[in-house]
Amino acid sequence: MFRYACVTLLLLLAAEIRQSRSTEVKVEEDKKLCLYANLMLNFSVTYEVTGKKNATVTFTLPENVTTNGSRCGNDSSLLKIGFGKGHSWALSFMRDNQTYKVDNISFTYDLKDDTIFKNSSSNDTKTVTVGGEMEAVDLNNIYTCKSHETLHSGLVQQVFWNVSLQAFISNGTLSKNATICRADLPTTTPPSTTITPKPTTTPKPTPLPQPSTGSYHVNANPNSTFCLLAMVGLQLHYKDSKEFVSENIDPNITTATGNCGNNGSDAVLVLKSDHVTISFTFVENKQKFFLHAVNVSVVNGNDTFHSGNANMSLWEAALGTSYMCNKQQTVNVSDSFAFVTYDLRVQPFEVKNSSFATADDCQADKDDNLIVPIAVGVALAVLVLIVLAAYFIGRRRNQARGYESF
Ligand SMILES: *[C@@H]1O[C@H](CO)[C@@H](O)[C@H](O)[C@H]1NC(C)=O
Ligand SMILES: *[C@@H]1O[C@H](CO)[C@@H](O)[C@H](O)[C@H]1NC(C)=O
Ligand SMILES: *[C@@H]1O[C@H](CO)[C@@H](O)[C@H](O)[C@H]1NC(C)=O
Ligand SMILES: *[C@@H]1O[C@H](CO)[C@@H](O)[C@H](O)[C@H]1NC(C)=O
Ligand SMILES: *[C@@H]1O[C@H](CO)[C@@H](O)[C@H](O)[C@H]1NC(C)=O
Ligand SMILES: *[C@@H]1O[C@H](CO)[C@@H](O)[C@H](O)[C@H]1NC(C)=O
Ligand SMILES: *[C@@H]1O[C@H](CO)[C@@H](O)[C@H](O)[C@H]1NC(C)=O
Ligand SMILES: *[C@@H]1O[C@H](CO)[C@@H](O)[C@H](O)[C@H]1NC(C)=O
Ligand SMILES: *[C@@H]1O[C@H](CO)[C@@H](O)[C@H](O)[C@H]1NC(C)=O
Ligand SMILES: *[C@@H]1O[C@H](CO)[C@@H](O)[C@H](O)[C@H]1NC(C)=O
Ligand SMILES: *[C@@H]1O[C@H](CO)[C@@H](O)[C@H](O)[C@H]1NC(C)=O
Ligand SMILES: *[C@@H]1O[C@H](CO)[C@@H](O)[C@H](O)[C@H]1NC(C)=O
Q1: Terminal CA-CA length for the chain
Q2: Beta-bridge partners for 23
Q3: 308 near 298, Cβ under 8 Å?
Q4: What is the chain's Cα-based Rg?
């Protein structure tokens, strides 16, 4: 029995490993690599079976394929992958001076293949072609996309994942520079790295005036007192397709909404301007509160930038107090998004009479506050030294004159 279980486990493992194998193809021209692809691809094909019924079959692009019919050109290239009993899948690439992209994807399948299309009522060969929706990739960059992407086209659906792809390889070697698909860029899922709450220098903020400080509040209904208060000057830095862009939040056109945190529920502050929406989620735990999540979306024309992190612990203070940080503070939320706060004061829980309670200062402010006591201390020490020096000098002079001081 045990042995049987082991064998089953091994078989399952083997099946798992087989399933997760990707298909890798290389096309060469003059013995130099010019086209490369490594990907996982599932086809789902609906076809008519005997008895006027439809059946749908899902199968994976096998590892064992041919590249017959592929060619590399100066302006266009074709990757043609043949597999199984007469099926083929082809990508045609186009390039311009700076970029390349997939122009279209064409899939040809032979319904005669009864290992895949069981009981097919037709022996036809069919072809579907879809316009490539792949983003343009910089020349000499490899395109990578781990996320699942689905292409629908009538009776055929194609699902891709773990894709690496490079066309118009100039050098015979794959590029080390990758263009990562949008779907792989961090959105609301927390990145693996934890953020550093201390001020950092990356990304470089472009010179912008310091943002105006806004006062924001949230209440449960228009007649109730405020349950969340915030004062902050906010500057955003985000990576808009290629470059980091910086912008200030203008309090004059920014409204605050959100949720009151009570009975264990989180407190949320949502700031919304004409094109930016940024939300801050605070949680309470063990008589303290802290900032736990930040999500941002920025709409620029037809593009929307999203980023966030739901795994933060910043701005911690005791429940019933507010958190304050007058110094500029940079918070790196993700690889593509950071924000800077000025004159920050926030109280997400237990607001009484719609006004701030006493504040817990941030470390940066405390460092500042230490300077005064240190200066006073140093001045006192210097004073003591001067007095001591005067005493000893005076004493020596007196001795030299032969007096005995008491
Ligand atoms: C099979 O699918 C085709 C295309 O979607 C559709 O026109 C046809 O009515 C379907 N046949 C049956 C029996 O469902
Ligand atoms: C791909 O197809 C196989 C069956 O061939 C299936 O087991 C697997 O779940 C599919 N994966 C995706 C992501 O569609
Ligand atoms: C791959 O395909 C070739 C030719 O079709 C065949 O000879 C070979 O056995 C196949 N290999 C595997 C591992 O299926
Ligand atoms: C690929 O093409 C070459 C030459 O055109 C031919 O000799 C070879 O048999 C083809 N391979 C397959 C698997 O069709
Ligand atoms: C491609 O470019 C090379 C060098 O620029 C040139 O020699 C070759 O003729 C071009 N090939 C085609 C098909 O245009
Ligand atoms: C591409 O480069 C060629 C010659 O280098 C130039 O004539 C052409 O205008 C460029 N095209 C674009 C879209 O930049
Ligand atoms: C398909 O081909 C097979 C073998 O070539 C034949 O037996 C069958 O009748 C054909 N079916 C149709 C629908 O043409
Ligand atoms: C060309 O290949 C060499 C190594 O073979 C590499 O150092 C160089 O960066 C490559 N250049 C480009 C533009 O890919
Ligand atoms: C890769 O990117 C770096 C920085 O963007 C650039 O300096 C380098 O030339 C690129 N390499 C290739 C082969 O394009
Ligand atoms: C707010 O107060 C006004 C006037 O007192 C009243 O008419 C309205 O119903 C109240 N709204 C809510 C949500 O309590
Ligand atoms: C916001 O409005 C105030 C008063 O209405 C004005 O003084 C200030 O300049 C405005 N700030 C911005 C950034 O427009
Ligand atoms: C936005 O999309 C609309 C409709 O697709 C298009 O007409 C417009 O040119 C696009 N604007 C930009 C800035 O891409």
Answers
A1: 104
A2: 39
A3: no
A4: 33
pLDDT band with cut points at 50, 70 and 90 for residue 371: low
Closest residue CA from atom 14 of ligand 12: 302
> What is the architecture of the domain spanning 213-300+308-361?
Beta Barrel (2.40)
Kindly report, residue by residue over 253-270, the tens digit of the pLDDT. Answer: 999 999 998 877 899 999
Range 375-379 average pLDDT? 61
Distance 95 CA to ligand 6 centre (A): 12
- The residue to mutate among 139, 169, 177, 242, having the most atoms of ligand 9 within 8 angstroms of its beta carbon, is 177
Q: Is 111 helix (H, G, I), strand (E, B) or coil?
A: coil
Domain-by-domain residue ranges, the chain? 23-184, 213-300+308-361
Whether the bond into 203 is cis, omega within 30 of 0 = yes
Strand-pairing partners, residue 231, are 215, 345
Q: Which DSSP helix (H) or strand (E) runs through 150?
A: strand 149-153
Predicted TM-score (pTM) of the model is 0.51
Asked if the domains 23-184 and 213-300+308-361 are classified in one and the same CATH topology, the answer is yes
Task: Ligand 7, residue 120: give the atom nearest the CA.
Answer: 13
CA of 30 to the centre of ligand 12 (A): 43
* Residue whose CA lies nearest to ligand 10 atom number 2: 223
Report domain 23-184's class: mainly beta
Pairing of strands 142-145, 125-131: unpaired
Dihedral over Cα of 46, 47, 52, 53: its sign: negative
Q: Which of 74, 97, 101, 138 to mutate to test the pocket of ligand 6 (most atoms within 8 A of CB)?
A: 97
